[in-house]
Amino acid sequence: MQSLGEAARAVLLTADPHDKRRAARALARAWRRGALAQRCDVAMPDQPAWPAEPALLPPNQMPRRRKGGSERGRIAMLHALAHIEFVAIDLAVDLLGRFGGEFPRTFVDDWIGVAADEAMHFALLDRRLRQLGSFYGELPAHAGLWEAAQATSDDALTRLAIVPMVVLEARGLDVTPATVARFRAQGDEASAKILERIYTDEIRHVSAGTVWFNWMCDELGFAPAPTWQTLVKSRFRGALKPPFNDSARRDAGLTQEYYAVIAS
């Protein structure tokens, strides 16, 4: 029987965005029908395979998005979000392939669901880009989204603390409602509804990160909130900056007890 690690590595080494999306959904189906053994017995790549386009630029070289309600400005925002969701597929799959053997089966159930969600989110955003006359890869994208995975490749607890609870999903909860409002104000209801769907799913994703971070803390005899604060201060290169969507974070179990005392 193929192992979870082998299947995860295959997804990570798939470069074409649409093939990667389909491979992530196939991984989820294989796990759910019992076709994968919960073994993480192969090394995950340090860097996933990605397509030649979009061109990846450092944050300080990314072009400024146009202000106002122009269609090109909305396309630029949707392209940036599609890139986040594309990288999020690999982040979820890497978590499974690298650390899935350290947790109960229900951990894999949760994060398989996250990987499938991210694949679906990418598909929705790419389809919307095409409806607007664009496509994923047309514009440059942020080169730094994988850095958090590289910086936390040694430890499952740190990965959970940094990626879903700080960098990716949690920050999405903070910024998405305002983005939805901007699209709606510009009359782009189709895009707004896609982002609302993603927002709802991201609450579950933050919850999965928080639940399993707390579970591992309990197994190790650590107090969750102080441990999270220590890991974020020592391993996260950025700063926690408001505004925070406290209500959505609370719904996901990520209460102010974690982040309020170290937010800048």
The coarse overall form would be globular
Number of strands: 2
- Low-confidence segments, given as residue ranges, are none
Give the strand order of the largest sheet, numbering strands 1, 2, ... along the chain: 1-2
First and last CA, distance: 49 Å
How is the biggest beta sheet arranged? 2 strands, parallel
Task: Give the helices and strands as they follow along the chain.
Answer: HHEHHEHHHHHHH
Helix content: 55-70%
Instruction: Estimate the mean pLDDT confidence.
Output: 95
Count of folded domains: 1
Contiguous helical run count: 11
Category by helix and strand content: mainly alpha
User: What oligomeric state is this?
Assistant: single chain
Beta strand % = under 5%
Radius of gyration over C-alpha positions, nearest whole angstrom: 18 Å
